[in-house]
Specification:
Layout (H helix, E strand, L loop, with lengths): L1 E2 L16 E6 L13 E4 L2 E4 L8 E8 L4 E8 L14 E7 L4 E4 L3 H9 L4 E7 L2 E2 L7 E4 L3 E4 L8 E11 L2 E14 L2 E2 L3 E4 L3 E4 L6 E12 L5 E6 L2 E2 L9 E3 L3 E5 L5 E10 L10 E7 L6 E7 L6 H36 L16 E4 L10 H18 L4 E2 L11 H10 L3 E6 L2 H13 L4 H15 L13 H19 L3 E6 L5 H4 L4 H10 L2 E2 H17 L21 H9 L10 H8 L1
Parallel strand pairs: 7-14, 17-25, 26-27, 26-28, 28-29, 29-30
Antiparallel strand pairs: 1-4, 2-5, 3-4, 5-6, 8-12, 9-10, 9-13, 11-12, 13-14, 15-18, 16-18, 18-23, 19-20, 19-24, 21-23, 22-23, 24-25
């Protein structure tokens, strides 16, 4: 079979341009045509069905198109068979590997492909020397139409093997053969195994240097005929000059004896600087060998945005702001609340319709009670009204100032306490402790009086005192006792908020002698300490004496610093006092909601 190679896309577009082919014998110059049993012309193929020695020579194929003419010459050499030897005089050498399963490949693949294109059936038969090989015997198997598989190759498997292709063409049955000179060797090379890259996605920074290794293992004895190459978009990367931005290294080989004999082949792919065009591309490492061409690839992607650092900054900032806010609120809670009440009064309910007459009921030791102090009385009758009433606009009920003449003490306390929104309890260290100490001392002189006082105080502490009962105390003592009892009842009912006003510093020993209810209330909500304000006032006065310039000590005001509503003590008092809101609550709507 002589085949013209002019019908090829490298020559012209044979699928779009019409053409025809003519064959000529160069010896005679005559055009060749079909000769029954001798010559068959099928387009670009010239078949010699029964070759003779006279057929040796040069044959020319001319391909003509409407625009061009192409010419090709092919030389045919006809040889005599070797006497006493089976097979073709010229033989193809092929290697078999000892100890493994190996294959011989018939060189007639082009013939088989051409006959298949004509839809002409054909079959292949193998011979060793002159003896035919039966499929499936003596470790021989016909494989994949054009191959002969030999299981467990031994030294005696070397020799001549002939494959003969038989077919029917041009009205006659013909055959064509090729002979293989096979020899057995201890060297072998199996299919390569690509270990890196492993079909992976790799992320790298734009502008950075990047290197990736192609690593292939070839199980073999001896030097394998394997080449590894890098490809991008199916184009070979052949640059090996390090001055190029993208280049590959030379192929390196490293032998291995255990656990399996073979060699490692390596080739680096290097990017001196990654650019945008390098991303979202599959880079493939392919190993070319007679046993196959396995490959592995990796895809280069830009890295994901680093959100850990921004999230850390945000969370850190939120945490910092939260801590600062908590500290600020802890330090300036009272100022913030007072400012909020002043700016947004509409958020608070108007107290004018709650039926109360006073913002606060002031309870303090009467003049004839043990523990009475002139300073306490002055504070209750003068200092409190001067700031809370005159400067801040609150309305106070102060016993001794606002009691009606002739009104019963018990009735006055009960009535006015119910008409108040707060109860301000003024006390010193001796307000509660002196009474108990005196009672303990007098017990040595008068057991009957001690019994009466002790029983009365126990009733107050247990919150079961009967305010309307008759007691054998003078008016002043009865007033103090009834005030304390009223405070206990207010605590039990929960209808009246009590504000403890501590006029002097209390030691732990003195606090231990206080009534349990007062100690509990002081521990739960604390007390507004006037004595701290006095320390601040003392420092202010010292500053006034030491400075001749009023600007250094603060702006001059009409009130002394201890009586200024902007001082800490008075801010705390205002914080605990009722809020003057502007939000109106309509009773009829409230009633409907209650339904």
């Amino acid at each position: 079979m002589l085949n013209s190679t002019l019908v090829s896309p490298e020559v012209f577009d044979f699928t779009a341009v019409p053409y025809n082919i003519t064959w000529y014998d160069s010896k005679t110059g005559q055009e060749l045509s079909n000769q029954t049993g001798r010559i068959l012309v099928l387009w670009e193929t010239l078949w010699f069905l029964n070759v003779t020695l006279d057929d040796s020579g040069e044959y020319v194929s001319i391909l003509r198109t409407p625009f061009w003419c192409y010419k090709q010459a092919t030389k045919l050499v006809v040889e005599q068979p070797v006497t006493g030897e089976c097979g073709r005089p010229r033989k193809v050498g092929q290697k078999l590997t000892k100890g493994v399963t190996d294959m011989l490949s018939c060189p007639l693949k082009k013939y088989i492909k051409k006959l298949d294109s004509y839809n002409i059936p054909s079959f292949l038969k193998w011979y060793r020397g002159c003896e035919p090989i039966v499929d499936g015997t003596e470790r021989y198997t016909y494989w994949d139409k054009a191959k002969l598989k030999i299981d467990g190759v031994e030294t005696e498997n070397s020799g001549f093997y002939t494959c003969t292709l038989t077919f029917a063409l041009g009205g006659m049955t013909g055959s064509v053969s090729e002979t293989i000179d096979a020899w057995v060797t201890d060297e072998y090379s199996l299919a390569p195994q690509v270990h890196e890259p492993a079909n992976e996605i790799i992320k790298a920074e734009m502008g950075s240097n990047f290197t990736k290794l192609c690593r292939v293992f070839v199980p073999c004895v001896g030097k394998p005929s394997v080449d590894i190459v890098w490809l991008a978009k199916d184009d070979f990367i052949l640059n090996t000059n390090p001055s190029d931005r993208v280049y590959t290294s030379q192929q390196r080989l490293q032998r291995q004896d255990t656990p399996q004999k073979g060699v490692w082949l390596e080739r680096l792919l290097t990017f001196s600087e990654l650019i945008e065009d390098d991303f979202y591309i599959n880079y493939t490492c392919r190993a070319y060998s007679a046993r196959g061409s396995p490959e592995g690839y990796f895809t280069l992607l830009p890295p994901d945005p680093n959100i850990i650092l921004p999230i850390g900054f945000v969370l850190g900032g939120v945490a910092f702001l939260f801590i600062i806010s908590v500290i600020i609120y802890y330090l300036f809670k009272i100022d913030i609340v007072l400012w909020f009440r002043k700016v947004f009064p509409v958020l608070y309910t108007n107290t004018d319709s709650d039926g109360k007459l006073y913002d606060a009921y002031v309870a303090y030791p009467s003049p004839c009670v043990i523990g009475y102090s002139k300073e306490v009385e002055t504070f209750a009758l003068h200092t409190l009204p001067q700031v809370l009433e005159k400067a801040c606009g609150y309305k106070l009920f102060i016993p001794g100032r606002d009691c009606l003449p002739g009104q019963a003490t018990v009735d006055s306390v009960e009535e006015n306490m119910q008409a108040s929104r707060r109860l301000l309890l003024l006390y010193t260290a001796s307000t509660f402790t002196s009474k108990r100490h005196t009672s303990s001392t007098s017990s040595n002189n008068n057991n009957n009086d001690t019994s009466k006082d002790s029983n009365s105080i126990d009733k107050v502490e247990s919150k079961t005192v009967d305010i309307s009962s008759s007691m054998s105390y003078d008016g002043c003592a009865r007033l103090q006792l009834e005030s304390v009892a009223a405070m206990h009842r207010a605590l039990l009912e929960g209808s009246l908020k009590v504000v403890l006003v501590e006029l002097e510093e209390i030691t732990p020993a003195q606090l231990a002698l206080f009534p349990e209810s007062v100690r509990h209330l002081r521990k739960k909500q604390g007390a507004v300490c006037w004595w701290k304000n006095q320390r601040q006032t003392q420092r202010w006065r010292t500053c006034m004496r030491m400075s001749e310039d009023e600007e250094k000590c603060g702006k001059d005001t009409q009130l002394m610093p201890s009586l200024s509503p902007s001082f800490r003590f008075w801010k705390e008092m205002r914080y605990h006092m009722p809020v003057r809101g502007k939000r109106v609550v309509y009773p009829e709507k409230t009633a409907l909601l209650n339904l």
